[in-house]
């Protein structure tokens, strides 16, 4: 099992150990060392003594169970439980990885949006592009107009209240709750299956391919192999035309970040479907204001347009930050405080590929990864001429995470011990 460390869990379980190891045995010792008791008194005390011993045993047993639950036992396939040396998580690292540096900023942004305050220039721009692309003719209105001034339009009013509702519902889930991994079937697989006319089932897909966008895809012809998976996830609308021999042609779901949808939302009918408009899209939200794009596009989208649960985002963020900090500290010998300036602190984010892999872990029995990793000979992306990686991601840290997924998933922090990581393979 994996260690499962919630906020404060480490110290809580330490208290528990203290209680079990010191209080309970002391009681037993006191009872044993009572030579002065007359024999008759000993006899008359015997039932009481037995009761006390029983109580002690029960206490010890229940403490053991509790300690085992927080520290770890390993459940073998055949149900035999045995203790294994568990990975030791560095609590400084766990604590620092759990800090969300952008939290205050996002909270403020959400609050402002809910109040109808689209203050900054950037937001103003996205509102006006939103209006332009959706036939709200801004030329006939004062150029400074913003949404709240136009609430008299019934269509605007409906979108506006929907926007506020989805934003509020989304933000309400902002917390660390690793059990979210077990909800992905319900949240993602079921709506996708319904859309494809498949029977409603809680069974994961037999096999999934997650297709990253690295140029290494051009070095092998995995197209047919990729298409042979039951479920194929592609990232950020990467083009497949002309690359089918390398990347395949089947797409079950398109996983994107909300910047992609934001760009598409400027086009008529949110048109942005390189895999066909029947392919469901799932995205994580980069900026809360992108719910405007979501609200608008969702109403005209022919396939499900899903937004990742914030609990899922929080989990992914913590895992990647943990790996990033760990390698930073190991390599530089610096302090955790120095990690943020080196990694764009509040802008730091996991990549779409990482979250797509996490999604696959939750909905598949077997996961194959393609197009992850880089090589000096290969292009950065198979389909673009982008030269370098974005600084706000730490791909090295993500590769270390994938490596653990494949070789020793137990050492991955923040996952719930109830969650069983399916077999993962990576193809170069
Ligand atoms: C945890 O990591 C920090 C930062 O690298 C280090 O200073 C500390 O000694 C580590 N603690 C343990 C118990 O290994
Ligand atoms: C998005 O659209 C679908 C289909 O029209 C609808 O069922 C769903 O409730 C919408 N989602 C939100 C959050 O409004």
Automatic annotation (TrEMBL):
It comes from the Eukaryota. It is found in: Golgi apparatus membrane. Keywords: Glycoprotein, Glycosyltransferase, Golgi apparatus, Membrane, Signal-anchor, Transferase, Transmembrane, Transmembrane helix. It is a single-pass type II membrane protein. One of its GO terms (cellular component) is Golgi membrane. It holds the Pfam family Glyco_transf_29. GO terms for molecular function: galactosyltransferase activity; sialyltransferase activity. Its main location: Golgi. The chain crosses the membrane at residues 48-67. PANTHER family: BETA-1,6-GALACTOSYLTRANSFERASE GALT29A. Belongs to the glycosyltransferase 29 family. This is Beta-1,6-galactosyltransferase GALT29A-like. It comes from Nelumbo nucifera (Sacred lotus). The lineage of its organism: Eukaryota, Viridiplantae, Streptophyta, Embryophyta, Tracheophyta.
């Amino acid at each position: 099992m994996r260690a499962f460390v919630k906020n404060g869990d480490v110290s809580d379980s330490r208290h528990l150990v203290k209680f079990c190891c010191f209080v309970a045995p002391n009681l037993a010792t006191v009872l044993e060392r009572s030579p002065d008791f007359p024999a008759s008194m000993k006899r008359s005390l015997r039932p009481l003594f037995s009761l006390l011993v029983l109580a002690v045993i029960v206490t010890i047993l229940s403490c053991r169970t509790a300690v085992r639950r927080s520290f770890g036992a390993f459940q073998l396939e055949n149900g035999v439980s045995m203790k294994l040396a568990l990975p030791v998580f560095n609590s400084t690292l766990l604590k620092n990885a759990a800090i969300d540096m952008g939290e205050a900023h996002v909270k403020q942004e959400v609050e402002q949006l809910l109040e109808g305050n689209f203050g900054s220039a950037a937001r103003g721009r996205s509102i006006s592009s939103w209006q332009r692309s959706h036939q709200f003719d801004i030329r006939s209105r004062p150029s400074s107009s913003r949404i709240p001034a136009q609430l008299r339009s019934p269509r605007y009013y409906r979108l506006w209240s929907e926007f506020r509702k989805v934003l509020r519902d989304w933000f309400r889930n902002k917390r660390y709750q690793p059990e979210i991994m077990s909800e992905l079937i319900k949240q993602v697989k079921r709506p996708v299956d319904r859309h494809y006319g498949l029977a409603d089932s809680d069974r994961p897909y037999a096999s999934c391919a997650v297709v990253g966008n690295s140029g290494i895809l051009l070095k092998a012809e995995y197209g047919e192999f990729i298409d042979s998976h039951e479920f194929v996830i592609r990232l950020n609308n990467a083009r497949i035309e002309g690359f089918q021999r390398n990347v395949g042609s089947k797409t079950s779901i398109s996983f994107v970040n909300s910047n992609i949808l934001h760009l598409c939302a400027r086009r008529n009918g949110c048109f942005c479907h390189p895999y066909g408009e029947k392919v469901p899209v799932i995205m994580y939200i980069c900026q809360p204001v992108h719910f405007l794009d979501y609200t608008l596009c969702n109403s005209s989208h022919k396939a499900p347009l899903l937004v990742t649960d914030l609990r899922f985002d929080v989990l992914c963020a913590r895992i990647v930050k943990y790996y990033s900090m760990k390698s930073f500290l190991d390599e530089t010998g610096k302090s955790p405080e120095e990690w943020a300036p080196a990694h764009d602190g509040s802008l730091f984010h996991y990549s779409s590929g990482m979250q797509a892999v996490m999604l696959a872990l939750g909905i598949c029995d077997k996961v194959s990864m393609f197009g992850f990793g880089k090589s000096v000979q290969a292009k950065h992306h198979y389909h673009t001429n982008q030269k370098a990686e974005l600084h706000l991601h730490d791909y090295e840290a993500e590769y270390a995470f994938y490596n653990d997924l494949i070789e020793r998933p137990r050492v991955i922090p923040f996952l719930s011990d109830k969650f069983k990581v399916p077999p993962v393979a990576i193809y170069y």
